[in-house]
Structures are given as C-alpha cells and as structure tokens.
Write a structure and sequence with these properties.
- The protein is of the alpha/beta class and about 210 residues long.
- It has one domain (about 5-195): 3-Layer(aba) Sandwich (Rossmann fold).
- The protein is built from nine helices and seven strands, in the order βαβααββααββαααβα.
- The chain has helices at about 20-25, 35-40, 45-55, 70-75, 80-105, 135-145, 150-160, 165-170, 180-200, and strands at about 5-10, 30-35, 60, 65, 110, 125-130, 170-175.
- The strands form two sheets. The protein has a five-stranded parallel sheet, with helices on both faces. The chain has a two-stranded antiparallel ribbon with strand order 3-4.
- A hairpin with a 2-residue loop joins β3 (about 60) and β4 (about 65).
- The chain is globular and about 50 Å long.
- The two termini are about 25 Å apart.
- The model has no long low-confidence stretch (mean pLDDT about 90).
C-alpha cells in the first residue's frame, strides 16, 4: 500500500478553469497549494529581490518592492529575460513545494501549477490533471475577463504551450466547455476516479 500522499497537479491553459477546480477541491476539504502564490512569495525573498533588481534594474520596483506587472511586461517581450527569471525563481518554488509536500498529512496533495508543462515539472507529480477548454472558449473568456482585444488575447495564448498539447499529455482531463453547473458535474465524476489514481505506484516525487 502507498504510504506517501498522492501528489497531483492541476493545470491547463489560461481561462480554462484551473482555479475553479482548485476552489471546488478546497470546498470539498482537500488541500490545494498554489504555485502562483509560492512564486509571489518568492518576490518578497531578500536574496531573490537583489537578484531580480540586478537583472531588471531599479525601474521594476515600486516603493522598494518588486512590481510583478512591470516584470511580466518585460519578459513577455523577451524570452531570454524570461529564461533568466525562471532560473532565479524556479529553485525557490521547487524547494517550497518540496517542503509543503514533506509536511503534508493526508491522502491527496494537490498543487495548482498553471505553467506545469512550460516549466517541465510534469514528471514531478504522480498525476497531472488538465482542465481543458477549446481555444475559442479561451479567447472568449480572456477578452471578456481581461477587457482586451482578440489580437491581444491571441498573443497571450501563443506565449503558452497549446492547450491541445497539454490535453494529450494529461493523465486525466476535466473538460470545461459549457457552464459552471456542468463543470461541477465533471468535477464530481473526477472525485469518484481519485481512488483509482491512488492505487497506482507512486513516483519518486519532486526530485529535481
């Protein structure tokens, strides 16, 4: 019998419903950690703060704190800067994920990791759940939620791995191409599938 908690990622594309599924899990009393929140905390780490100021310059700070929006705008336009940013943040994020997992007491440990495949972290998890929406649904939601143009939304989608590729790599797919009520039904079905996942051999986790 597996003694380690099953480590499960929740991922997908922008505006596919990852956070909605994470919130439903929390409402069902499951623990879901957020990689984005861990990354946000990384920006407050004094060592990382110094490294990022050295990389981007003082113009990315506001009242002594890093401005994530400014940094996001810079790396969106420059892939080399993005790679350098990731090389600074990822070790911190992985170390914190390792700590949270090692201290976790329970059967299922979930992490919401939006850029799981982009960051090449899929092999760190026992099971990768992709919340899937078609590209047209992503574009529609993105233009409405962000109040941006179709072209701007398309550029954002181009910056991520295509959702169809993520779907093909998933261990389990939760489709979100309708409304909230239907998504909840898909979520309920997923919960019934959890015991089957836990019966599988566990990987050596978070060993990067």
């Amino acid at each position: 019998m597996n003694k380690q908690p099953l480590l499960i990622s929740i991922t997908g594309g922008i505006c596919t419903g990852k956070s909605t599924i994470s919130n439903l899990l929390r409402l069902s009393d499951y623990t879901v950690y957020s990689a984005d929140k861990i990354a946000h905390n990384a920006y407050n780490n004094p060592t990382i703060l110094k490294e990022l100021i050295a990389l981007f310059g003082e113009n990315v700070t506001t009242n002594g704190s890093l401005d994530r929006t400014k940094i996001g705008e810079l790396v969106f336009k420059d892939k080399q800067l993005l790679t350098k940013l990731e090389s600074i943040l990822h070790p911190f994020i992985l170390k914190e994920m390792q700590r949270l997992y090692s201290e976790f007491k329970g059967e299922y440990c979930f992490f919401e990791v939006p850029l799981l495949y982009e960051a090449k972290l899929s092999e760190c998890f026992d099971c990768n759940i992709v919340v899937y929406s078609t590209r047209s649904f992503q574009l529609e939601r993105l233009t409405i939620l962000r109040e941006i143009t179709q072209r701007q939304a398309e550029n954002i989608l181009k910056s991520q791995i295509d959702i169809e590729i993520k779907r093909s790599k998933a261990d389990y797919v939760i489709e979100n191409n309708s409304d909230y009520d239907e998504l909840k039904e898909k979520y309920s079905y997923f919960l019934k599938f959890l015991p089957e996942l836990n019966s599988r051999p566990h990987k050596k986790l978070l060993s990067i």
